[in-house]
Structures are given as structure tokens and as C-alpha cells.
């Protein structure tokens, strides 16, 4: 039997793993996997009609995103990272940052209890129980936060928690620029 045949499985294994390892090390060298591009950046918030989380029967549509810059924060009670970021969102709200919450694929009563217990940083809390607006936004999971300008145009998508570091480094400068632009 030809001994070269024994090396075929090794060659196939290496041919399959080298591209994967290359991508792994590329991400370790600087690509940020939390920076997911969104096809909606530069476009208006999708058309929707959703109920208020705490007031069933009260509906909102995409017009709530016009008039002033704000954040749209996608969250859920089943999301441990959402719990971790919630206190910081409360802090941002006390500093005057305008935030709308999108409760995503959750149980309404649990979500209302969460806001009652932990504080409510949201000007409006939308209930997206079936996740359809989340799907239209391209949500991968919670939390995700979108920066939306005064014209209702999505300017940035942040995947993961909002915390003091990424707020100061990335989100706040963009938010403040939108606020100054809207004041003109």
C-alpha cells in the first residue's frame, strides 16, 4: 500500500482548518465581532404599529422616532446582559439621554415587573412580543441599541450592552453630534 495515501486525511483537515484559524486570529487582532453592520444604517426606522408595554390597547408607530435624536434599546427579561446594562441606562436617562425601549420576544407581565423593580429609563416602552419589529431591524439578540436622528433615520447600531466605556468612546460622541445637529 502507498504510504502517501495516509497523508490525505491530514491534508484535508489542514485545508479546512487553516481558513478558520486565519479568521479567528484576524478577529483577535482587532476586528470587533460586536460591530455588526446593519443594512438599515442610513435608512428610516421600519414601518410598525406596536402596543405600549404597560398599557395594552395604546399603540405607537414609527412617528415616535421623529423630532429629536434618541436611542432605541432592544431588551428582554430573559437576557442577562440586559440586566447588567439596565442600571447604566437609568443613569443615562437621568442625564437627559432620550431612550425608547423595545421589549423583545418577552412576557409582558415579567417585563412590566422588571421596569417597576429596576427603574424605567424609557420615554416609551414598546412591546414586541412576537419579535416582528426586531426582525425588521435585523436584531440578532438582546441587547442591541440603535442611534436614531431627529428625522427617524438609523445612524448607528450597537450590539451588546451599553456601558460607561462604549458610551464615552463611541455612542456619546455620535449622540451629542446628532443633538447639536438637531438644535440648528
The chain-level structural class is: alpha/beta
Count the helices. How many? 5
Shape: elongated
Question: Could you state the order of secondary-structure elements as H and E?
Answer: HEEEHEHEHEEH
Helicity range of the residues? 25-40%
* Strand fraction: 15-25%
Side-by-side strand order of the widest sheet: 2-1-5-4-3-6-7
CA-based gyration radius:
21 Å
Task: Determine the N-to-C terminus distance.
Answer: 81 Å
What integer is the average pLDDT? 88
Let me know the largest β-sheet.
7 strands, mixed
Overall number of strands: 7
Low confidence ranges: 32-36
Summarize the SSE layout with pairings.
Elements lengths: L7 H21 L20 E4 L6 E3 L8 E6 L4 H15 L4 E6 L3 H11 L5 E5 L3 H6 L6 E5 L5 E6 L4 H20 L1
Parallel strand pairs: 3-4, 4-5
Antiparallel strand pairs: 1-2, 1-5, 3-6, 6-7
Throw out a few tags for this protein:
single chain, 184 residues, 7-stranded mixed beta sheet, 5 helices, 40% helix, elongated
Question: What would you note in describing this structure?
Answer:
The chain is an alpha/beta fold and 184 residues long. The chain has five helices and seven strands; from the N terminus they run H-E-E-E-H-E-H-E-H-E-E-H. The protein has helices spanning 8-28, 80-94, 108-118, 132-137, 164-183; strands at 49-52, 59-61, 70-75, 99-104, 124-128, 144-148, 154-159. A seven-stranded mixed beta sheet has the order 2-1-5-4-3-6-7. Strand 3 (70-75), helix 2 and strand 4 (99-104) form a beta-alpha-beta unit. The chain is elongated and about 75 Å long.
In short:
The chain is of the alpha/beta class. 40% of the residues lie in helices and 19% in strands.
Amino acid at each position: 500500500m502507498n504510504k502517501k495515501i495516509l497523508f490525505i486525511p491530514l491534508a484535508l483537515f489542514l485545508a479546512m482548518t487553516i481558513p478558520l484559524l486565519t479568521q479567528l486570529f484576524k478577529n483577535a487582532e482587532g476586528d470587533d465581532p460586536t460591530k455588526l453592520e446593519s443594512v438599515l444604517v442610513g435608512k428610516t426606522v421600519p414601518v410598525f404599529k406596536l402596543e405600549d408595554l404597560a398599557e395594552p390597547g395604546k399603540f405607537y408607530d414609527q412617528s415616535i422616532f421623529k423630532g429629536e435624536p434618541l436611542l432605541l434599546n432592544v431588551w428582554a427579561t430573559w437576557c442577562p446582559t440586559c440586566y447588567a446594562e439596565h442600571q447604566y441606562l437609568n443613569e443615562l436617562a437621568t442625564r437627559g439621554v432620550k431612550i425608547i425601549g423595545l421589549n423583545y420576544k418577552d412576557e409582558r407581565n415579567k417585563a412590566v415587573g422588571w421596569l417597576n423593580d429596576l427603574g424605567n429609563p424609557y420615554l416609551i416602552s414598546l412591546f414586541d412580543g412576537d419579535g416582528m419589529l426586531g426582525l425588521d431591524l435585523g436584531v440578532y439578540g438582546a441587547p442591541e441599541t440603535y442611534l436614531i436622528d431627529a428625522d427617524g433615520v438609523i445612524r448607528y447600531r450597537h450590539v451588546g450592552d451599553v456601558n460607561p466605556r462604549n458610551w464615552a468612546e463611541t455612542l456619546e460622541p455620535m449622540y451629542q453630534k446628532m443633538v447639536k445637529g438637531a438644535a440648528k
